[in-house]
Structures are given as C-alpha cells and as structure tokens.
Amino acid sequence: MKSLRLSRIVKTFGTVEVLKGIDLEVETGEFVVFVGPSGCGKSTLLRVIAGLEDQTSGTVEIAGVPVDAVPPARRGIAMVFQSYALYPHLTAAGNMALALKQEGVAKAEREARVAKAAGLLDLTPLLKRRPAELSGGQRQRVAIGRAIVRDPKLFLFDEPLSNLDAALRVNTRLEIARLHRALGATMVYVTHDQTEAMTLADKIVVLNAGKVEQVGHPIELYNSPRNLFVAGFIGSPQ
Ligand code: ADP
Ligand code: MG
C-alpha cells in the first residue's frame, strides 16, 4: 500500500504560486528525501502533508485515505522541525509524553512508550533534564523521541540537522538511518544537503521552484540527471 500519495498539489500565498502541481507516491517503509534550494517550497509541501497548511488545490492521501478534511493531530503523522520546538519548563520525558497526555493515553502507557523511545535514542539517563540542560544534539533526539512515542504511520523531518555542528550532524544522521531500519516506518525528510540526501534516501525528489524536477534512487539521479539543474544539485559533473 502507498503510505502517501500527493495528487496535483498547488499552493498559492496571495498571488504567488509556491507549489505548482506536485504529484508523488511514497511506498510504506520508504525513506524519501526532498531536496532543492532554499525557497523552492520544501517546507510548504511538508506542512501541507502534515495539515498545518491547507493546499489551494489537489489531494493528500495517507495510507490510502484522503486526509484533506482531517486535522493534523489525527493524520497519523509526526513532524520533527529544525528548531526542536521543545517546551522549556518540561523535562525531556515531559516533552516526549505531552502529546500522548493530550490524546488521553494513560500514565503507565505513556511512561512505557517514553522509556522505549528513550532506549532507542540513548536518552534514558537524560529523561529528567530540561531542554536548557541538554546539548543541541540531545534536544534534537528528544524532539525525535517525541515523534516516535506517537507511533506514527509517517514521519516528516524538516531539515532536522541544520542547527547542529558538523560532527553532530553526521552522528544524528546515522541515528535517523538506524531508527528508520528499527521502526520500519515511512519517512519523508527535507534537506538542502546533498550528502544527507545521498546517504539517507531510498528515493530522492528534486524540487525546484515549486515543481518536481526528477524522482529516483540516489544512484540513478547521480548517474542520469535529467537536466542541468538536477546535475548541479546531485548529479555527477558533466
Ligand atoms: P523551502 O522550505 O524550500 O526553503 P518554503 O516552503 O519555506 O521553502 O517557502 C517557499 C516560498 O513560499 C518562499 O518564497 C516563501 O517566502 C513562501 N512562503 C512560505 N510560507 C509563506 C507564508 N506563510 N506566506 C507567504 N509566503 C510564504
Ligand atoms: Mg524550509
């Protein structure tokens, strides 16, 4: 079954058309990376999938179900942002459990899910700390943990590594790849970093000015870029 299907997604802000008819299919369990220059519409597309932004026209289907009328909390997705967006007054455990609490999940179940996610992310010794007492990398792991505890059908990552220094970026990238294997979840990941795209993706979607330029396996895009834009972005020099 397709985890995600986008059909002719158009988004305009005022008179500016930011997404110009995006079609895309994502298989269950696939790791799909959206790459493209700043301003090409990557975040807007993720926000439309998440339901944080209404598309102007077109359809979003998640696990075979049209979700255009379904609010973000009920789409079975979890989103991880560049800017962690943690609550400063809550501990790591409190941040991870918050959405579950709001959904009415019982305390024992919340604690079990937080403990499991913390184990996966090496966060167990840090659960009682508040965000100010954590490093950038640890905060981003808490943000990822907050997504995992909800057991989403689909993970959306919007440039999750761009606030981390180079060494942490590599570690966290490997961690995300490991999580993808461990959870078997579908992941859609936005970056403007070619290395992240080439190393993480089962499938890369190259976006340019609100349109899909090319979709393919990293090696396919690298070896056979369809045009100069794709070549310049991830292809081999020609
Ligand atoms: P990316 O994530 O690829 O850098 P964005 O999706 O954030 O790009 O933005 C794509 C375009 O849409 C940009 O030109 C941006 O200025 C514009 N845009 C994004 N959000 C809004 C908004 N809420 N109102 C008006 N314009 C927006
Ligand atoms: Mg963006």
TrEMBL record:
Keywords: ATP-binding, Nucleotide-binding, Transport. The keyword Endoplasmic reticulum does not apply. Its main location: membrane. Residues 4-234 form the ABC transporter domain. One of its GO terms (molecular function) is ABC-type maltose transporter activity. It is found in: Cell inner membrane. It comes from the Bacteria. The keyword Acyltransferase does not apply. GO terms for cellular component: ATP-binding cassette (ABC) transporter complex, substrate-binding subunit-containing; maltose transport complex. It is a peripheral membrane protein. Belongs to the ABC transporter superfamily. This is Sugar ABC transporter ATP-binding protein. It comes from Aureimonas glaciei.
